[in-house]
Amino acid sequence: MNIVVCVKHVPDAQGDRTFTDSDMTVDREGVDGLLSELDEYAVEESLKLAEASGGTVTVVTVGPAAAADAVKKALQMGADKGVHVSDEAIHGSDAPATSLILAAAVKKVTDGAPELVVTGMASTDGTMGVVPAMLAERLGLPQVTFASELSVVDGKITAKRDSDASTETIEATAPALISVTDQINEPRYPSFKGIMAAKKKPVEQWTLADLGLDASQVGLANSWTKVVEVAKRPPRQQGEIITDEGDGGVKLAEFLAAHKFL
Amino acid sequence: MGEVLILVDHVDGKLRKATAELLTIARRLGEPSAVHIGPGAETAQVTLAKYGAGKVYVFDDPAALGHLVAPQAEVLAAVVAKTNPVAVLIPSNSIGKEVAARLAIKTESGVITDAVDVQAGDGGPVATQSAFAGSYTVKSQVTKGAAIIAVKPNSAAISPAPAAGAIERVDVALSDLAKAAPITERKPKAKSGRPELTEASIVVSGGRGTGGDFSPVEGFADTLGAAVGASRAAVDAGWYPHSNQVGQTGKQVSPQLYVACGISGAIQHRAGMQTSKTIIAINKDEEAPIFELVDFGVIGDLFNVLPQATDEVKKRKG
Q: In Å, how far from its chain's centre is CA B315?
C-alpha cells in the first residue's frame, strides 16, 4: 500500500517562539525549526504500514525553504521520497488554504488516486488540529482521525479513538485519511545508514503553479480569518514559595482558605 | 440581530457544561439557536431554552453519531445554509474542532479554534486564543462566511435568559461519504465520580514525583471536589490513563485552581495548564521550572504535604 504522509516544519517549542511584528504571523526565521514532534508518529506509522504491505512512503510538506528539513528528517527515518511545496505567495496561509495546497499536492503525487493519507493529530505550533479533517473533506476520503491504535489489513482500516466520554472503534476502507496521536507508537531515530541513504532520495520542489493553484487562493491576504491583536502575556508573578518544615500541608490549606477555595 | 448557532454538547440529551456556556456567549453576538444532533432533544430542550435558545434544530437520525465527524458537519452545513447565521459556536474538543474544520470547508467560512473568550466586535465576533503554551494572547476575527468559532470549556460564566426553545426538525440526507467511517463500538470510560478534567474548576495533577502512587493526589482532589490530571511522564509510565493527561498532547485545562504535585513543569505540561487562574505546586526540587508559574509553592515531599493538607482541608470544611 502506498502512503502519503503530510508533515509540518515548526518552530522548536524549546526556543523562544514569537510572532512577526510586521504581519502578526508565526516567526519562522528567528527560532530554529524542526519536524513537528507530533508528525514523527505519523511518519513512524506510515513506515510500519508500508513495511507490512510492501508499499512506499511519500512525505509531503508545505512551507518556506527551511521546511526542507522536515522532509529530510522523514526521509532519514525511512520515507522513500519527498515533496516540498514552497511559494512566496503561501506565507500567512490559514488552515483552509493550507489544506487546499496539501490536497492538491497529495492528488498530484498520487496521480489523483491516493491510497492512504496519514497525518499527525495537530501541529505543535498552531495546535488547531483541523487540517486532517479539512484534508479528508477536500479529498473526499473517509476520515479516521486521532487513532491511538491502528490496523490496516487488505485495505480494511480499524482504529481506536479516545474521546472524553468513551473509547471508540472506527472502521473504514482505503482509500482514507488517517491521523494518529502520540499514543500510537514510538518513533524511530534515524540510523546512520538512514541518514546517508536520505541524501540520495528524490525530493520534488513544487510551486503553486505546479499544483494548478493561484496566489489569490492562499496566503495572508486571502485568509478567511485575520489576527487583530497579538500580545505577549505578562509573565506570571511568582508568588510565595515555602519550604516544608513539617507544616507545609497546613500552610497550603491556609492559602486555599485565604483565597476562598474552601 | 442575526441568528447564532451553537452545537449542543451532550451525551444522549444530557447536556455537558460547555452547552450553557456557548449559549451565554451566543447571546452577546445575536439570537441564539441550538443545533441538537442525536437523541434526547426533548430532554435537552428545557435547559437549552433556559439559557437563551430561541430555536432548537434537531437531527436525531442515529447515523449522525454512528459515524465519525462528517455527518455532524453535513447537518450543521444544512442549518447554516438555511439560517445564514452570524456565527457558529462549537465546543472546542477533538470532535468539535473537526466538525468545525469540515464545516469551514463546506461553507467556505473562516474558522477559529480553542477560543477562551468571544465578544461582539466591529465586523463580527472577536475570539481570544492563547498561543505558544499560553505565552501569548491572540485576538482574531473571521473575515469570510459564517464566523465558525470553537470555544473551550470554562470560557464564560453561565447565566440564564429564558427563550422559547422551539423545536424544529432538520431534514438532511446524509451522503454516503459521511457514512464511510462507522463507529462500530463505543466503550464508555469508567466513571471516577470526579468532575471531568476540562470542565472542572479545580484540577489536582500528579507527575513523576508520585512514583506511580496517585493515592495522595486523588485524596486531596476529592476533598476539594477536583478533577485529577497527570503529566505526560506519569501517563507514559503507565501510572494514569491518557485521558487524564494535561499538556500539549493531552487536555488543555484552564481551571480556577491548578495544583501540580511532583510535576517539574516542562513546556509540554505548561502548554496544558499555564492559563489556569491560580497555580499551586508541590515539588521536592526547588529548581523545578513549575515554581516560576506558581501563586503558592511548597518545596517538599508530596507524600508528606498532601495528606496533611487533605486533613487540614477536611477539618476546615467541618
A: 33
- Render pLDDT for A52-88 as a digit per residue (tens, 0 to 9): 999 999 999 999 999 999 999 999 999 999 999 999 9
* B182 interfacial to chain A (CB closer than 8 Å): yes
In this prediction, the residues of chain B whose per-residue pLDDT falls under 70 are none
Give the tens place of pLDDT for each residue, A220-261: 999 999 999 999 988 888 899 999 999 999 999 999 999 999
Residue A44: its pLDDT value, please? 98
**Alpha helices (H) along A54-176:** 68-77, 95-109, 131-139
- Find residues 73-102 of chain B whose CB sits inside 8 Å of chain A: 73, 93-95, 97-102
The CATH number of the domain where A141 resides is what? 3.40.50.620
Q: What ipTM does the predicted assembly reach? A: 0.94
Q: Any residues with CB less than 8 A from the CB of B249 and at least 6 apart, and which? A: A38, A121, A181, A182, B232, B268
How many angstroms separate the CA atoms of A38 and A106, rounded? 20
Element (H, E) at B189: none
User: Best residue in B175, B185, B284 to probe A by mutation, most A CBs within 10 Å?
Assistant: B185
- Write out the three cell numbers for B37: 444532533
- CATH classification of the domain holding B291: 3.40.50.1220
Is B284 found in the same domain as B144?
Answer: no
Instruction: Tell me the residue length of chain A.
Output: 262
Mean of pLDDT over chain A: 95
C-alpha cell at A55: 508499499
Would residue A130 count as lying in a domain?
yes
Does one domain contain both B55 and B89? yes
Residues of B in contact with A127 (CB under 8 A): 114, 248, 271
**What's the confidence (pLDDT) of residue A31?**
83
Cα distance between residue A87 and residue A65, in whole Å: 9
Total domains in the fold of chain B: 2
Q: What is the CATH number of the domain that holds B99?
A: 3.40.50.620
Q: Do B304 and A13 touch (CB under 8 A)?
A: no
Rounded Cα gap, residues A257 and B312, in angstroms: 10
What b/e sequence results for B133-160 when a residue is b if at least 16 CB atoms lie within 10 Å of its CB, and e otherwise?
A: bbbbbbbbbbbbbbbbbbbbbbbbebee
Number of H helices, E strands in chain B: 8, 17
Instruction: Tell which of B179, B212, B247 closes a domain.
Output: B179
Within 38-67 of B, beta carbons closer than 8 Å to A belong to none
Instruction: Tell whether A128 is covered by a domain.
Output: yes
8 A C-beta contact, residue A104 and residue A114: no
Return contacts of A249-252, CB within 8 angstroms, 24+ apart: A249/B298, A249/B304, A249/B305, A249/B306, A249/B307, A249/B308, A249/B309, A249/B310, A249/B311, A249/B312, A250/B308, A250/B309, A250/B312, A251/B298, A252/B280, A252/B282, A252/B296, A252/B298, A252/B305, A252/B309, A252/B312
Q: Which residues of A touch B144 (CB under 8 A)?
A: 224-225
Domain range for B76: 3-179
